[in-house]
Amino acid sequence: MSDSKFKIIAGLGNPGNKYARTRHNIGFSVVEALALKFNLSIDKSRFDSVYAKTKIQGYDVFLVKPLSYMNKSGFPIRKFAAYYKVDMQDIIVIHDDMDLALGQIKIVKSRGHGGHNGVRSILDAFGKKDCIRIRVGVGHPGDQKSVTGHVLGGFAPEETACVDKSVDSASDACLCMLEKGITAAMNLFNTKR
Predict the structure, then answer these.
(1) CATH number for the domain that contains residue 35
(2) Number of domains in the chain
(3) 193 residues of the chain, pLDDT tens digit each
């Protein structure tokens, strides 16, 4: 992250009640958890997104939920960044990740999309991969044919406590990055199980 005044924290997901609390929407859940920590409502609308703006660690931070559906997430985030002149390295993207176990989070920087279509859309929209990502584990269904149902499905009751904990950890990781930088956040959160 740079010393630039503006930061964007974007959670990925799909709009509408049908997708709320699904694995694919865990990015939305993290941004909502962050908003809750600052008593904010994500109720402003711009660039096919809903957002809230607040000050964290002296930065002007936009908490953004793109409403363009997961696979087209890049366009709203790109418009937001262009309008407020936010460099890609000052964007934290939070998304679900099937390659991580449920409850595990991992911070990565300047990496490829790893097969995640929402992330692919962002990298395509910016034409580079300089953003920071928080991968939030949702577990893998075991076979390729079950992937769509898995990510668009809800969590089992016995998974709820684990999910809530990982959502809280991911929101803490965002705050840690703003306060202490990405390396400190990686050291703290990437080793946790």
Answers:
(1) 3.40.50.1470
(2) 1
(3) 777 789 999 999 999 998 888 989 999 999 999 999 999 999 999 999 999 999 998 999 999 999 999 999 999 999 999 999 999 999 999 999 999 999 999 999 988 888 888 999 999 999 998 999 999 999 877 777 788 787 788 888 899 999 999 999 999 999 999 999 999 999 999 965 5
**Which residues form the domain of 146?**
6-189
52: left (phi over 0), alpha (psi -120 to 50) or beta: beta
Which of 24, 95, 116, 150 is labelled catalytic? 24
Judge whether 150 counts as a catalytic residue. no
Domain membership flag for residue 63: yes
Helix (H, G, I), strand (E, B) or coil at 187: helix
Distance CA 193, CA 145 (A): 28
Query: Is 1 a domain residue?
Result: no
Asked if residues 76 and 122 have their Cβ atoms less than 8 Å apart, the reply is no
